[in-house]
């Protein structure tokens, strides 16, 4: 999820669900019948409590936080260890049942939709933090561990895991979708921060992408299977363990906010801050519409103009210099109202608009649903695409305040839509396609961090070309010839 | 190459070579005959000058800087553009001829050896820097561009490309072998710094791993083909273009040197410097044997003990703080003789031992050849593996001073060997295997940056396990079913 969190789904106990009728009719009679035939096999692997047919559980596992339609799986299993995942996968493989991995369901491109029915593997019961090595700056986690749970676990070590997509997503899910977020400009995305993965392939094979238990900070040993799995969105394997890089918690942090007369001035400041070598930790852009929404929602009085929210990490002394350099640069670009804050409370107040942006956007149209688009372009192309996109939104009577991880050229329109209005949904759909094509025309990508999922398969082909899609398909076929792993996603 | 450079091979003009007799007898009569049959096709694609059978040219292209035996290809071609590379590949594909890409020949694991004969693609004639976008911090280069040539080209932009393996290697070759080197602790390896690749597959298909001309700083669009090609050592495709991340040249640099009573003290200092969040740019370790060699070779008077060479990048003011922090930490670990220098001349003098290490090692045994091993382990395991390795060297009467990129847990023994002594070569071979297995036993890798090439195929299997090797083989088969791309390497 893009901005902040929403209360997590409170799942009913699988046992309770078992007692319920299968009130959600399966759309896939073939897989549904196959599931019925393997029920006892599934139960013998992960226990009575570990298999759920309940309508509510299946519905909860058939959608993420996007506006993609819910497609419930035929059954949800709750394995407790990699051996169970492997055994369950073997059963599915033998009976040609689709396998859909499920972490926290906080994805944004319909990645968990069971479009061909099958078995959803909920990994929430595998939630242990394993093998913490503070002196080596690495840790290994099971797939049920969320980023907040990990950082809470790390509290006394002086270390943290900085990749922050907003939602309290599971770390293995973040690996599967190549998540990033606000800190990527300084600490990189999941691609740069996963050292090793354990994954179960379609046939039940347990793969360790960099070798079992290995955790060197760099390696040149063979094909980079780790980064083939990162971003594969469950279509190549179920990630059952991730070894991650950790970082020392910075001695101090400073937050700052600055308003600009134009998008160009905000982007120019960003480029110059990066050129000056300021090791900026976060540099977030909010457009005038979003600032207005935030002012209303949180009773703030920021200028209603393009705004940068900045965060600096470092030693007390280096921070002073970083902030001064950033202030100089923003002022030379016409920035005004540069405010900064050092202590936690003041920093929180200063960034309140940014933190509440999701809810502020929603409050623009009470009762509506929010849907976050996602494109990424080279930095210098940002002003053009943002100006054109704002024009497009106006012309098409759409509500879509803009927020972006501007240091990476990545931004989102927070589309606030009436989910029961098919005409508006259609306009939003056409708008997001135009937005993606605008990014492609400017050397960019149709998705910087949300992934392809269900929604961007056609755009992927336009982006990488038929040769690259053919190569991706060959790789998929070589690892999952029966197309059982999360079918219908990416390709 | 590990440390510094050696004078590059001065190749004879292909035209001159054409006039020479094929004095190197082919070891592969089948491919040799096939090459004869396609000669006119090759010449029609890249011209008379673009095809060479000359013995000297073939020998120069049959070896890198390792001690692996020279295996000359049957012919060397010199394409001038990607279209020629693709057409040449199609001819090879049709006639089942192996394809071996060749950049600068500075590899260290026999990656360019034509073990099954075939056609060497020398890419030196494709040497243009293309599409420099200073405001977006990216550039695209052809495969003949070396890292020094690129940095020279960038001189007036305020930007640089920091990955530095020592040798003046071609950047696409560095991508193919997943090179890194001294700066990786701050700026990452090739894996983190390649945004897009153009590559020609075995059948002549031109692939753009992230889509033609695309250069967003991050993407979540489909499988990460870029990082599948990075480190594939020419076994999946010929890299014909690389789009790279650039960085602002730091305002200032400081170099420092410090001696330690033990390897443990040097490594503890490294861990603490990283924990303190000092954005160290280089942190290099030399052991007592190497320091002694350097003192003798360069008439220096450093303490003959484990030593760290450090480099700090940043603003004038931040550097002062970084250096003070590092000095505090080294002293608390028993470090002594902490010296630092700011201006270019003094920095060069201070680091002279590190820069000359390769030649200093060679000078230990005049007339011998040097061979750099390469392993990488989690930081905390470095003291144990270095102590055990020094013991092993002594027990086996081998000369192997140690130098390492200690911030990444990566180190090398510079084996100085008598190349005409098969018994000594055998002892070195057994030693490097023991070293690699020692790294594996400590959760590490048999190669941090030199790659698998010819020499570490068996070790790769021990490292990643049979499941991962099988997955790698399936990927290879899916993209190169005839096994024509650099056969005999990695797998």
Automatic annotation (TrEMBL), chains A, B:
<feature type="domain" description="FAD-binding PCMH-type">
    <location>
        <begin position="69"/>
        <end position="249"/>
    </location>
</feature>
<comment type="function">
    <text>Involved in D-lactate, but not L-lactate catabolic process.</text>
</comment>
<keyword id="KW-0274">FAD</keyword>
<dbReference type="GO" id="GO:0071949">
    <property type="term" value="F:FAD binding"/>
</dbReference>
<comment type="similarity">
    <text>Belongs to the FAD-binding oxidoreductase/transferase type 4 family.</text>
</comment>
<keyword id="KW-0007">Acetylation</keyword>
<dbReference type="InterPro" id="IPR016166">
    <property type="entry name" value="FAD-bd_PCMH"/>
</dbReference>
<keyword id="KW-0496">Mitochondrion</keyword>
<dbReference type="Pfam" id="PF02913">
    <property type="entry name" value="FAD-oxidase_C"/>
</dbReference>
<dbReference type="InterPro" id="IPR016171">
    <property type="entry name" value="Vanillyl_alc_oxidase_C-sub2"/>
</dbReference>
<dbReference type="InterPro" id="IPR036318">
    <property type="entry name" value="FAD-bd_PCMH-like_sf"/>
</dbReference>
<keyword id="KW-0285">Flavoprotein</keyword>
<dbReference type="GO" id="GO:1903457">
    <property type="term" value="P:lactate catabolic process"/>
</dbReference>
<dbReference type="GO" id="GO:0008720">
    <property type="term" value="F:D-lactate dehydrogenase (NAD+) activity"/>
</dbReference>
<dbReference type="InterPro" id="IPR004113">
    <property type="entry name" value="FAD-bd_oxidored_4_C"/>
</dbReference>
<dbReference type="Pfam" id="PF01565">
    <property type="entry name" value="FAD_binding_4"/>
</dbReference>
<keyword id="KW-0809">Transit peptide</keyword>
<comment type="subunit">
    <text>Interacts with CSRP3.</text>
</comment>
<dbReference type="InterPro" id="IPR016164">
    <property type="entry name" value="FAD-linked_Oxase-like_C"/>
</dbReference>
<dbReference type="InterPro" id="IPR006094">
    <property type="entry name" value="Oxid_FAD_bind_N"/>
</dbReference>
<dbReference type="GO" id="GO:0005739">
    <property type="term" value="C:mitochondrion"/>
</dbReference>
<dbReference type="InterPro" id="IPR016169">
    <property type="entry name" value="FAD-bd_PCMH_sub2"/>
</dbReference>
<dbReference type="GO" id="GO:0004458">
    <property type="term" value="F:D-lactate dehydrogenase (cytochrome) activity"/>
</dbReference>
<keyword id="KW-0560">Oxidoreductase</keyword>
<protein>
    <recommendedName>
        <fullName>Probable D-lactate dehydrogenase, mitochondrial</fullName>
        <ecNumber>1.1.2.4</ecNumber>
    </recommendedName>
</protein>
């Amino acid at each position: 999820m893009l901005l902040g969190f929403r209360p997590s789904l409170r799942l009913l106990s699988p046992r309770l669900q078992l007692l319920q009728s299968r009130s959600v009719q399966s759309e896939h009679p073939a897989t549904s019948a196959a599931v019925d035939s393997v029920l006892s096999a599934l139960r013998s692997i992960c226990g009575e409590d570990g298999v759920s047919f309940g309508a509510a559980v299946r519905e909860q596992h058939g959608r993420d936080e996007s506006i993609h339609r819910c497609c419930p799986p035929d059954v949800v299993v709750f394995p407790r260890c990699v051996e169970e995942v492997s055994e369950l996968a073997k059963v599915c493989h033998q009976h040609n049942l689709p396998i859909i991995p499920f972490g926290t369901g906080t994805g944004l491109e319909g990645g968990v939709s069971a479009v061909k029915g099958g078995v959803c593997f909920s990994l929430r019961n595998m939630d242990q933090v394993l093998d913490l090595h503070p002196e080596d700056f690495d840790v290994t986690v099971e797939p049920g561990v969320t980023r907040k749970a990990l950082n809470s676990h790390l509290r006394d070590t002086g270390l943290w895991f900085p990749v922050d997509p907003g939602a309290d997503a599971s770390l293995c899910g973040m690996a599967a979708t190549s998540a990033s977020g606000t800190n990527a400009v300084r600490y990189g995305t999941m691609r740069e921060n996963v050292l090793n993965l354990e994954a179960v392939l379609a046939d039940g094979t347990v793969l360790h992408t960099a070798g079992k238990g290995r955790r060197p900070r760099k390696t040149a040993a063979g094909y980079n299977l780790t980064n083939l799995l990162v971003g594969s969105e469950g279509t190549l394997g179920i990630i059952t363990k991730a070894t991650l890089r950790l970082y020392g918690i910075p001695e101090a942090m400073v937050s700052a906010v600055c308003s600009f007369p134009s998008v160009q001035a905000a982007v120019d400041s960003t480029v110059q801050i990066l050129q000056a070598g300021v090791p900026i930790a976060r540099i977030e852009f909010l457009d005038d519409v979003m600032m207005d929404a935030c002012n209303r929602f949180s009773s703030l009085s920021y200028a209603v103009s393009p705004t940068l929210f900045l965060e600096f990490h470092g030693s007390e002394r280096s921070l002073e210099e970083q902030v001064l350099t950033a202030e100089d640069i923003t002022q030379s670009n016409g920035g005004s109202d540069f405010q900064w804050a050092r202590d936690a409370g003041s920093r929180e107040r200063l960034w309140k608009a940014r933190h509440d942006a999701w809810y502020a956007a929603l409050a623009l149209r009470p009762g509506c649903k929010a849907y976050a688009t996602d494109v990424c372009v080279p930095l210098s192309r940002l002003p053009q695409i943002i100006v054109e996109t704002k024009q497009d939104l106006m012309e098409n009577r759409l509500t879509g305040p803009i927020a972006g991880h501007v240091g990476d050229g990545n931004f989102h329109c927070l589309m606030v839509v009436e989910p029961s209005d098919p005409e508006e949904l259609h306009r939003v759909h056409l708008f997001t396609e135009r937005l993606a094509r605008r990014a492609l025309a400017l050397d960019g990508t149709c998705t910087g961090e949300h992934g392809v999922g269900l929604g961007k398969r056609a755009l992927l082909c336009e982006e990488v070309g038929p040769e690259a899609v053919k190569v991706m398909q060959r790789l998929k076929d070589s690892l999952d010839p029966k197309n059982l792993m999360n079918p219908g996603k990416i390709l």
